[in-house]
Amino acid sequence: MSGRPTPCSPKEIGSLFLFEKLSDEQLGRLCREGRTERFDPGPVYTEGEPAACFYVLLEGTVVLSRRVGGDDVEVVRSSQRGVYSGAMQAYLGDRVRQVYNNSMRVTEPTRFFVLPAGTFADIMREWFPMAVHLLEGLFFGTKSTQAAVGQRERLLALGSLSAGLTHELNNPAAAAVRATATLRERVARMRHKLALIAESPFPKDQLVNLIDIQQRTAERVAKAPALAPLEASDREDTLTDWLEDHGVEQGPQIAPTFVQAGLDVDWLEQVAAAVGQEILPGAVGWLNYTVETELLMDEIADSTTRVSALVDAAKQYSQLDRAPYQVADVHELLDSTLLMLSGKIGPRIRIVKEYDRTLPRIPAYPAELNQVWTNLIDNALCAMDGAGGDGTLTVRTALHDGRLLVEFRDTGPGVPPEILDRVFDPFFTTKPVGRGTGLGLDISRRIVVDKHHGGIGVESVPGDTRFRVLLPLTAVEPDGTALPSASSDGPPLTSEDRTTSQEQA
Q: Which domain of life does the UniProt lineage start with (predicted)?
């Protein structure tokens, strides 16, 4: 949109803080090669258009906004003379994409000093060559540093997750190895016992009864109920007395196994009636091997199932075998992240899940959302660890104003009010030296806001810190590509979205 040209006064231009140190000759050149224009209320330029001009406010009111999903979100409103916007990076040339990074409109008749982008770039390089070199170094250096440190942050997170996953895998794997070794020993003893039974002069009908009892005992093991410690101890004493009374010498060793398998005195009475007193001790020993074998196989099954679950969680977390953009269940992503981080969760930290399972699956980049969950959960655990390693982490999902809310609430000491607005700033961290780079929340903000067109905010008081992520439920296609959508309401804007300065509108 073009405004109405008005006379350009070097004196007026020189009164702005941006140009107050320029010479009369330089101010004259600005007026010759630039222009002043008056705009009626309405748009001046739109985000994403080629950045053709550099605008400096002379009088009036400007409003800058950013596109978030399908909505324009106001980020700056100012009436201060000298604030500027537009082609501010023209001096970088083709090394960066020269488009407007926001939209600008005016709410009343407003005048600007307008400088074409090419002229602005030439003047910057000619008048301020050293400043241009410094600005170029700052821009590209910060960009490169942020990328390198961001990669380092990801590697550190990956190392931590790998260590935790290795620890979690080691426990069930070691249990399976121990159970397998014991099972091999028990099977060998069972073969030996079978050989003794085969050589004995036991009647055939008693052997048939013994095999039938063995089968029913195995079935009973699979249905054994869990007993309270006191109840289990009482039952062990009762079984030990019964076994000793019936001539079974290993009663104290056998009784705990039988109790774990759900066998009781009534069951042993049935065994005694079926096989007779003569072979009862041998039959009990044979059944003991059967019970131990079944329990060991259950332990191996539980251990391998746990290993399989961990591997599935790792695959779900990494999303290596899935498309980058897909419709995903947020609860599956949260569960896989919590499982991956379980090695970092202290014994005195309680995890509470308040999931609304009626929420729909949403269009998202699951692997990147998992990184957001990792950063937010890790920060919460670190905060509670600093408070003595005791606390509660609550993960809640809900529907909020037409979007999916994911909230992480911890009972740590909280974020001091004076730095609350800075937590999403790059390189800002409250963690001890060596424990954080200050990019975790910045990366999370970029993933949620820039990539998913959602919102992320934080509220904190001592004992109650809440990070809230809002994600759109549906996808929009502004350019033919499926992308998430969002509304403009939700959590507060991040500090980067709210930031204004004296010199930049």
A: Bacteria
